[in-house]
Amino acid sequence: MTILVIEDEPKTGDYLQRGLSESGFGVRLARNGRDGLRIAEEEEIALVILDVMLPGMDGWQVLQSLRARPSGEHLPVLFLTARDEVPDRVRGLELGADDYLVKPFAFAELLARIRTLLRRGPVREEELIQVGDMEIDVLRRRVKRGSATIVLTTQEFALLHLLARRRGQVLARSLIASQVWNMNFDSDTNVIDAAVRRLRRKIDDPFPLKLIHTRRGMGYVCDVEDAPV
Amino acid sequence: MKAPSRSSLALRVTLTFVLVVACATAGLGSYLYRAFVGKIEQRDDRQLLGKLRQVQLLLARPDAADVVRAHPHYFRDTMSGQENSLVRLLAADGSVLADINAIHEAYPLPPSGGASPGVAAIRSWTGKDGTPGRVVAGSARLDERVVTVVVARLYAERSLMFAHIRQQIAAAAIVGALLAALLGTWMLRRGLRPLRTVAEHAALVRPGTLGQALDVAHAPAELRPLIDALNAMLQRLHEGFVRLSGFSADLAHEFRTPVSNLLGQSQVMLAQPRTRADYEGLLASNIEEFERLSRMVDSMLFLARAGQDELQLAREPLAARDALEEVASFFDSIAEERGLRLECAGDATVLADPDLLRRALANLVSNAVRHADAGSTIGLGVAVQDAAVELSVTNVGAPLDAMHLAHLFERFYRADPARSNADGSTGLGLSIVQAIMVLHGGSASVQADGTRIVFTLAFPTRNHHRHSPHQPE
């Protein structure tokens, strides 16, 4: 799957290209709106990451032109901007942006948003999640590792469910706070660390195979692996 | 529509003044004129009646008939003192016995007023050239026959005099108006001089001199309220300006530490070849600093928007207890690590924006967790007061000096400056709490009682519209 990044700021463009490639996406980078539109027209693009502040043709105009063409009508578009005043948001959504991310953002957050946008249609929630020897029965809220049943509090279960549901994806602390506790603002990151530590004491500490891993500076990931990359 | 609002006050006042003076002069003049004219006319009418009486007496003399008949010239010479005096004698059958009318005026014959007519018998008429005239008729005996004596008179010279007086009155009114214009302009210029002084002083006000009040000592009493209001405005601007510049300076200082760390540790790391673990450690450390900077920027933007009234509240009735429990569960793990207990008590419905309420509570609990003594309990409570629902967060910690309490909600204020950067806090959490409460029309307050510190959020229960979002108390 190829993602088109339209971004004029050199460093931003470069790290987005690199980060997205390393996360398994094909990436096409355009430094201005006109090139971006041409690439969107000529190539098979799955999603567009669009900076609002572009030289010449700005992001709004690019989005309008894109939406006016048959090839771009249903293309998911994720806006990046340093301004997040309410009128800007409204304008973006009115013009047909699918999502909106305010700079500075955590790269893991961007990846999570991209994956959400690329999932076509609603996904059926799995009722049974298996990671390594861990089994999560979502309906009965039961967790087992091997034959051992692990008792979790409601919040611990919600946290584990989130990590396991997105296994293999690095989840930013802000995303965890928002999804598990409804805290939609940047709060103490220590709080998430403490919550993950407590979960680990129950899930990982008694077992040799660790399932919850720290990505320093990024967040947490749940997967079967020996050591963090 | 714009011209009148922009026209000069001096011009308008002067014009009004001139109009008043002109009207007063003209009014007084015409009143006096009318009185004068009335008196003159009365005098002339008495003279006219006197003339009639004179003729009547003349005709009463025994030889009168002869004189009239035989010596009409003599009669005429006797009677006509002036050209303007006209006399006519009419017999009972209407035939003219004598007519003294050198200027050939045609005048009406009024009904006879009898032997001694009064003023009521006098009639007005207008001469050939428009000169006003008066005429009166009376009866007399001439040779045992009743004749009618008609006396008339034209007042040419009187009209001229009246016209002259009218001109003089008009001239007086015009001169008075001109004098009033000059005087008015001069008086206004003098009177408005203090205003110009105020304007000159105001023109000198610069951001750095906002604290200097305008001089009120030499101003007239009428201008004092204006100058006092201006001074009060300057004072408020000055306070705001000092606060803002202090804030900018604080902000720059707060940014200095993380930026300095980023710069220094990156340069040290690059100075020599390092292991991969070292590089990764550096990057992770840098990310921590960046995240702190990013949180600071977010908080700043939030405060700026709250201050400029740009945030829209999505208020709804909420069970306060649920909000407390949610926040408590969020902090549960970290509290446990530090040996703290979180306890919720009470319940009430509170009208608030759920996200902002959570944010305010989370900031307070985060603050409490940071400062609570190990092993102590942090209390989250709801209490219903007279006019407000109060949510409180209580912790036990190192006693806080009373001098710090008043400043706790200020941006970047830290009771202990030494630990400013140690715990990753932005120094803006409590300011945000206060901003959120102001947005809700409520208030945030703090009390300390020995080692116990209580932060209270008061949400007004009466339907309280947000009239003045900038008044924290």
Structure description:
The complex is a heterodimer of chains A (229) and B (473). In chain A, the strands form 3 sheets. A 5-stranded parallel β-sheet of chain A has the order 2-1-3-4-5, with helices on both faces. Chain A has 8 helices and 11 strands. In chain A, strand 6 and strand 7 (134-137) form a beta hairpin. Chain A is 39% helix and 21% strand. Chain A has 2 domains: 2-118, Response regulator (Rossmann fold, 3-Layer(aba) Sandwich); 128-222, Winged helix-like DNA-binding domain superfamily/Winged helix DNA-binding domain (Arc Repressor Mutant, subunit A, Orthogonal Bundle), CATH 1.10.10. In chain A, helix 2 packs parallel to helix 3 and helix 6 (154-165) packs across helix 7 (173-181). Chain A has helices at 10-22, 33-42, 59-68, 86-94, 107-118, 154-165, 173-181, 189-203; strands spanning 2-6, 26-30, 47-51, 77-81, 99-102, 128-131, 134-137, 142-145, 148-150, 212-215, 219-222. Chain A has 229 residues and is α/β, with parallel strands linked by helices. Chain B is α+β, with helices and mostly antiparallel strands. Chain B folds into 3 domains: 2-162, PAS domain (Beta-Lactamase); 221-305, Helix Hairpins (Orthogonal Bundle); 312-460, Heat Shock Protein 90 (2-Layer Sandwich). In chain B, the strands form 3 sheets. Chain B has a 5-stranded antiparallel β-sheet with strand order 2-1-5-4-3. Chain B has helices at 2-6, 9-60, 64-70, 72-79, 156-203, 224-270, 276-307, 320-337, 354-371, 402-405, 429-439; strands spanning 85-90, 96-100, 123-126, 132-142, 145-154, 316-319, 341-345, 349-352, 377-384, 388-396, 443-449, 452-460. Chain B contains 11 helices and 12 strands. The model of chain B is unreliable at 464-473 (pLDDT under 50). The two termini of chain B are 43 Å apart. In chain B, 53% of the residues lie in helices and 17% in strands. The A-B interface holds A 84-86, 104, 153-155, 177, 181-191, 193-195, 197-198, 216-218 and B 280-281, 283-284, 286-288, 290-291, 294-295, 297-298, 301, 310, 312, 326, 329-334, 336-337, 355, 358-359, 362-363, 366, 424-425.
